[in-house]
Amino acid sequence: MKSIINSLLICFFVATSATGVKAQNEIPQTDNVYNLQSCIEFAIKNNPNLKSVKLQELGNDYKIEEIKSGLYPTVTGSGQYVYNYALAEQLLPGDFLDNLVQQFL
Q: How confident is the model at residue 62 (pLDDT cuts 50, 70, 90)?
């Protein structure tokens, strides 16, 4: 078992040395030149703490607007339309109502 592991390690080291592994020997070519002011602006723009504070501030603004809207009066209304296709029939005789009206006058 040890001989298999040793032979695998030797094969790994031989394979990696044959490919010419370089660790940051070449300088990458970049067109961007950074000065102190641009670095500060980049840090302020991409700081996750500042982003979370801005989002919390925005959420608080929405909460304030929600609370203010609760102070306004509310108006509710409803309507209904019914078409009676049959005329209602009178169940009481007309003389009955005339007698009651004359008693109160």
A: very high
Prediction pTM value: 0.36
The alpha-helical segments, DSSP class H, found in 1-105 are 2-18, 36-46, 48-69, 94-104
Residues 2 and 9 sit within 8 Å (Cβ to Cβ): no
What is the token pair recorded at 13?
A: 């080291």
| 44 Cβ neighbours under 8 A, 6+ residues apart | 50
Compute the distance between CA of residue 12 and CA of residue 9 in angstroms, rounded to an integer. Answer: 5
Where do the domains of the chain lie?
A: 30-70
CA torsion sign for 81, 87, 91, 97 is positive
